[in-house]
Specification:
- This protein is α/β, with parallel strands linked by helices.
- The protein folds into three domains: 1-39, no CATH class; 42-250, Rossmann fold, CATH 3.40.50; 278-313, no CATH class.
- The chain has 14 helices and seven strands.
- Strand 6 (187-190), helix 10 (198-210) and strand 7 form a beta-alpha-beta unit.
- The chain is globular.
Amino acid sequence: MDAEFLNKLLRGDKLAATRAITAVENSAPSGEEILRAIYRHTGKAYRVGITGPPGAGKSTVVNKLARLYRQQEMHVGIIAVDPTSPFTGGALLGDRIRMTDVELDEGVFVRSMASRGSPGGLSRKTADVADVLDASGSDVVLLETVGVGQSELDVAAAADTTVVVLVPESGDSIQAMKAGLMEIADLFVVNKSDRPGADQAVTAIRTVLQFRSERDGWNADIVKSIANEGKGIDEIAGSIDRHRKYLEETGRLLEKRGRRIVNRIRELVGEQLRVDFWNEGRLERMRQEVQHVIERRRTPFDVVEDLLREFRQS
């Protein structure tokens, strides 16, 4: 790797970070080389996942949190995972549309990423991009997910603290959410709390929490906010900080990050096995067997068994 490029990246050069992230997102050979080179410089940034249903105001919360952190002279990375266009494969929404308050701040790096069909709301490359922002000097990385409801559960695995943003209208559906979003939150934010039903939503969340087991020994906070007016942002940041201190003091932060590393290694192994397994020969063998399976002369299990036996012997 070009030593000058690496030095620029580690010094927080935005152009270098943009080039590195593009290489990582596109799975270019240089992307893995970059991730290997920067890995020992990661682990400093605190990662906060912001999730919740569409229209809850996640982007506004992220925007205002970034401004607050900048006032504290912290460097902020923002990864906004957007729905993927079915035509281009790219993100439908742009970071410049949603992050107008912080886009010109030299201490903030905003990146929109396409979800590329990832069912959990976070692109599979999000953790790698977070590593790039971590190594390039971000003190905190905010991960904002697509906003597709209960399928966004993998944000909890990618973040140190998970914030679930709801609105007063969520009150009637909180019971239905409890098997999904309600289980992963370290902090609940009832945004747009100037609307009717905010207090009822808080009560509904508290009711659900009575029946929820503690996450890592932590009882989730509930904060009311009106993010577009900046109200409640200090309280959200304070709750995130309390959760961070709790994780650090109990050793659970290292445990959580250890689980994240295990999951990442498993993903990498799976990806490499898929590449190694599906060579041209095995792809052709599978195509030849399809007709036999259609005609019910063989089962899919037979084909898998043959392919795996051949793979183990190769």
